[in-house]
Predict the structure.
Amino acid sequence: MRKLALVLSLVAAGPAFATGLEIEVAGEANGVIKIDLLEDVAPKHVEQIAALAAEGAYDGVVFHRVIEGFMAQTGDVQFGKIDGGDMRRAGTGGSSRADLPAEFSNVPYERGTVGMARSQNPNSANSQFFIMFAPGDFLNGQYTVVGQVTNGMDVVDAIKRGEGQNGAVVGTPDHMVKVTVTD
């Protein structure tokens, strides 16, 4: 009986059993992006992303910051909803869940790498994430890597670009219609 209790406590304490995300995108980009989540690299971040996706929190969230040759950022579940969100504040919010301590690794930022967005504080990642258009070695060891695109980079490449140095999207941004956790 003690052994069963120990096993159950370890299972309950472990990361979500998600292995990936499937993101349906609409706007200038239309299609599906498939992401392999790296539970062994960033278990707390993967668990948070998977839980938010399973709750439907990412459904309808826009790509609010998209910089040509760099990355596309999304995941502001507080202000970034295509319907009923506050586009002036998109990119400044998170979820009702706690911010996460950094889980830096040796996994490099390459084309298709998915990383967690954060403020200047390395322990401030919450719900926002970004997908790299190109390698970004300057991010290595500075931002938590959570996944890698395995299919749909053509969809990522088609996401509506933002303007200016911060990549703010003007007009109607592309958005994640539905985000599904896959196993």
Helices lie at 2-13, 43-55, 153-157.
